[in-house]
Amino acid sequence: MLRIGFRDYAQWTRSSELALFSSMPRVATAFNIPLIFLGENPALAFGAKTGGDGAEANSLRDYDTLSGASLTPWIERGIPENKLFWYRFPSDEDIERLGLRMVYLGYFIRDFDDIHNTAFAKEHLFQPREGRDADPTCTGSINPYESVDEDFVHVNQHLKSIKLGFGKVVQQVSVMVRHGAISREEALELVRCYDGKVDRNLIERFCAYLEIDVEEFEIIVEQFRNRDLWQLNNQGQWELRYAPR
User: Fold this and answer.
1) Per-residue b/e over 97-112, b at no fewer than 16 CB within 10 Å?
2) What is the pLDDT of residues 48-67, one digit of tens each?
3) Which of 83, 180, 189, 234 is most deeply packed, by most CB within 10 A?
4) Which long-range contacts (CB under 8 A, 24 or more apart) does 104-111 make?
5) What is the mean pLDDT of residues 136-144?
6) What pLDDT, on a 0 to 100 scale, did the predictor assign at position 58?
């Protein structure tokens, strides 16, 4: 399923996010649990198109990367339906029957953001990434306390930058600027240096996991590169047409 997601959309996370988000309401409707707490509201925290300006999260299936939570792409490619239980959201009827309510916990906590959550993690001896795993030139991330459970998230952020023109650092510094932790000029410099970066070793490991070769990875990346945002410079290297300023 990861391989299908990467080949079809240059977005390997689509299936894993389906399982991540649908498993909670699946359990809730099975055991009559009427309330689910999620973390941050993606609209307020990151500027996502879904999430709204409040606490309600019942529109979760319409989250940008879930695309309506349809399983059709997987079923059409031969994934058996009986293997997709945890990837399928409950029906609207089941949710209404239970009166299930999903809410973003972060909406009710004043300091629920990257800055304060990182400080909380440090105070409670959370172990961050270290060494090369924390190097933003390798990860495209400036926060070593974030996304510590797996490495391919950095490949996904690189792919996002190919398609949308921005990666993880833009998201991270936007939060920092809004909270006054850094200036806009400092944020722009971090974006210029690190946004969209990913280490070659991570790409090779990602390809090995998906059982594809790096050449196929590079072909797919170029197929999905947004030419409205990227152009070749005089050295034959890809650069953004509209540099951060």
Assistant:
1) ebebebbbebbeeeeb
2) 766 677 888 888 877 766 77
3) 189
4) 104/37, 104/38, 104/39, 104/40, 104/41, 104/44, 104/51, 104/55, 104/56, 104/57, 105/37, 105/38, 105/39, 106/39, 106/40, 106/41, 106/44, 106/45, 107/41, 107/44, 107/54, 107/55, 108/55
5) 96
6) 86
